[in-house]
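Hi P.,

Sorry for the delay on this. The queue was packed all week, but I finally got your sequence through. Input first:
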Amino acid sequence: MFKKFTNACVRVMNRWLPDPFLFAIILTIVVFIAAMIGTQQGPLELVWAWGGKGLTGDGFWGLLSFSMQMALVLVFGSAMASAKICKRILGAIASVAKNRKSAILLTTFVSTICCWLNWGFGLIAGALLAKEVARRVRDVDYPLLIASAYSGFVIWHAGLSGSIPLQMGAVGGTEILGVTYSAPISKTIFHPANLIMVLVILLLMPLINYAMHPDADHTIAVNPEVLKEEAERTYTIDTPAEKIEHSRILWVITLVLGFAYIVYYFVKNGFNLDLNIVNMIFLMLGILLHGDLRRYVDAVGDAASSAAGILLQFPFYAGIMGLMVAQNPVTEISLARIIADFFVSISNEYTFPLLTFLSAGIINFFVPSGGGQWAVQAPIVMPAATEMGIEYGRAAMAIAWGDQWTNMIQPFWALPALGVAGLSARNIMGYLVIVTIFVGVVACLGFLGWAIFF
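Then the structure:
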């Protein structure tokens, strides 16, 4: 019965799921119509909100700063993963896989840990590991293997690169509607309830993924062309310019400056991570592991293409966010407020984080960005948490978990891994429907337990 349901999900996704960019266009149309009906605003008002209301920085261009941060997380994580020493480590890890079962279990487990450490690194490292595993285990179902690599992304926002807990843990907190909210990472990322949910997913999701493996007649083996390695770059160091580019002195000075800042940052601020310091850490680690500034420049150039989807689609999702938060000037009602207010209105002290998680999962379809999700929901959720006496860390993590949860069936963030794997979103999304159901159950029980036992 389980495999029949899985196979049905795979067939539906293969037949009906469009390209991620077209998916964003379709979502724009759906939200536009829903906003007209729900908020009683005219089409010109909503077009104005979608495009950014002139020069206010909202709407279509409202996430430029955050887009840059996200692109850098992805590019720096990818560049680090492409270092020779990282590839050797991935190859050594992949050698543990001896059959289909160990291939799926290993790929899921390692990618989940990597995504918890850093989502950009985890996305690419998971896909690279899956390709290394596919070289060794040729009878494993390749789409499921890549889906397993991507499934680790379902815990990214509960990890060290989660944008919402990092904003809450930043020095001075984060300001929402003139009020400052803050929560140290001991109350978000490292809260026992959050760690328990992550641990349950880390241990059980590999087994769930293996249980979906199709029989031999329906297994899709990897295309050998996908596994071809590009020849390693060779460099000539003859001219003064080339000697400068490969200078060990400049490499050392860069590393000393970068790591000196990182150490001083933690001395001054404690172990408070935000997106900028995470990016700084992975930038410097990438330079260190590549061992040469010219090699690192080329690695970043190669990795930058994987951010193309972010650069193209983020403005459209920012536009969708503009539609979601566009208020009727008379009633001050927005589509996001309608959704969030509904869940808040039926909540109590125990169910509030759970229902916030569910509402965040719904909103994430239309705003698949942690920062965008926070901008949409925080003005509703955080004041409500204050009124109900719910700690800010728990309320914030409910949004974060909802954001990461439905990423499994929102193809946007799968683009980098798919680019590495040579597959399309429709090849893996059927399997990820099952992952979404599983993680939804874990998170619902987890937030109820957080309310009762912590």
